[in-house]
Design a protein that fits this description.
The structure is a single chain. The chain is an alpha/beta fold. The protein folds into 2 domains: 6-111, Tetrapyrrole methylase, N-terminal domain (Cobalt-precorrin-4 Transmethylase, domain 1, 3-Layer(aba) Sandwich), CATH 3.40.1010; 118-172, Tetrapyrrole methylase, C-terminal domain (Methyltransferase, Cobalt-precorrin-4 Transmethylase, Domain 2, 2-Layer Sandwich). It is built from 7 helices and 7 strands, in the order βαβαβαβαβαβαβα. The strands form 2 sheets. A 5-stranded parallel beta sheet has the order 3-2-4-1-5, sandwiched between helices. Helix 3 (63-75) packs across helix 4. The protein starts with 5 loop residues before the first strand and ends with a helix. The protein has helices spanning 22-30, 39-48, 63-75, 96-104, 118-125, 144-150, 167-172; strands at residues 6-9, 33-36, 55-57, 79-83, 109-111, 132-136, 157-160.
Length: 173
């Protein structure tokens, strides 16, 4: 039986293709398969760095169907790297489910340090950064007001993710 492989969670640049670590490039060059949130977006990054590895689509619409097979492949010896369109897998992007299931199955998961949008935004904001809470994307409709109401007495700096097209509406809420 082959040695068990590994799942790497590999952060990708947020806006500037040069904002990737050398180790991330090394993992992407050496892994057997790259799992990508959007193969079109990831293809741009991989082409830029001349990385030619099998690229499998892995996103919120198919992760429940694909996770078991991916874990089986890793247990069979394949090393895989999960990347998202921008930032760190699992931070408001695919990654949580497969990480949890790998841990349950005793599959080794390694998360590389690197790009995420929330920390640079927090540091640049001038708001207190010694204590903060990350809320990610909040519901668009159902549950939105309930979530916001539950946070109204929060004293720590709060970080939310929102698309630029929905930001004004979010701020009005």
């Amino acid at each position: 039986m082959a040695d068990q492989g590994k799942l790497y969670l590999v952060p990708t640049p947020v806006g500037n293709l040069k904002d990737i670590t050398l180790r991330a490039l090394e993992i992407l060059q050496s892994c057997d398969v790259i799992l990508a949130e959007d193969t079109r977006n990831s293809g741009i990054l991989l082409k830029h760095y001349n990385i030619t590895k099998p690229l499998w689509s892995f996103h919120s619409h198919n992760e429940h169907q694909k996770t078991a097979q991916i874990i089986s492949d890793i247990q069979g010896g394949q090393t895989m790297a999960l990347i998202t369109d921008a930032g760190t897998p699992g931070i408001s992007d695919p990654g949580f489910l497969i990480t949890r299931e790998c841990i349950k199955a005793n599959v080794h998961v390694e998360c590389l340090p690197g790009a995420t949008a929330c920390i640079p935004a927090l540091v640049k904001s001038g708001l207190p950064a010694d204590r903060f809470v990350f809320e990610g994307f909040i519901p668009v409709k159902k549950g939105r007001q309930t979530r916001l109401k539950s946070l109204e007495n929060e004293t720590r700096t709060m970080i939310f993710y929102e698309s630029p097209y929905k930001l004004l509406k979010f701020l009005e809420d």
